[in-house]
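Researcher: Please translate sequence to structure tokens.
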Amino acid sequence: MAWIMLVVAGILEVVWAYFMKQSNGFSRLTPSVITLVTMIASFALLSISMRTIPLGTAYTVWTGIGAIGAFVVGVAALGEQLNGMRACAALLIVCGLILMKLSSAD
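Model: Translation complete:
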């Protein structure tokens, strides 16, 4: 269950990052509220998952999901550049996440 909460926390990190961008520096109300609510939920789920998953593993997976998710959303929804070097960097992050999960005793 801790891993499910950690993955959901990572997905919520992507959501709050996207809406933070949409909030235009917290100058737009609705995206700002969505940012804050999903940020709190993401941190809460991360905290709960850390009851059983080691800190280094949980934090690495959480930030990795956020980084890859934000990268994908940036390219797919915001028209950000996709090139070979950025794709390779994203692949390396994914490989690191897989290795972190495989090395965890949980």
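Researcher: Any highlights?
Model: The two ends are 10 Å apart (CA to CA).
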